[in-house]
Model the fold of this input.
Amino acid sequence: MKFVKLSQAEYEEIRKLYEGVMSQACYGLFFREGMILGDEVSKIALQEPDKYFEICSNLLRARGWVDNIVFEETDAVAEGSIEACESDIPTCHRLRGIVKRVYEVNGHKRLHCEEVECISKGDKHCVFRVEPLGGG
Done:
């Protein structure tokens, strides 16, 4: 095996590259994991369609994902997300996946979900905006 020498500056740039790639891959993985969890929550909630969002909220609280979550027409507002940590970017990727699936199952259509506010960034709540794919 051969070894090469790197300057400290080269090493730091390569480290940043790998950290960025791995972070993005993890975010996607966590989001997909959340969608699986959202399917399970939705299956339980569908047993009482008139109370669908209330049951989803109760399950997410009981399972420890949030202290509270309110599902509104196009936004879900969460307090006390388990995924919150100090960051410059939104961190609640699993919860975003859960929220996406909860809305999709209820509306019977595919949607886009974005975390537009995050406790991790210093916002008061985590807010997830849900809209039809393509923004229309």
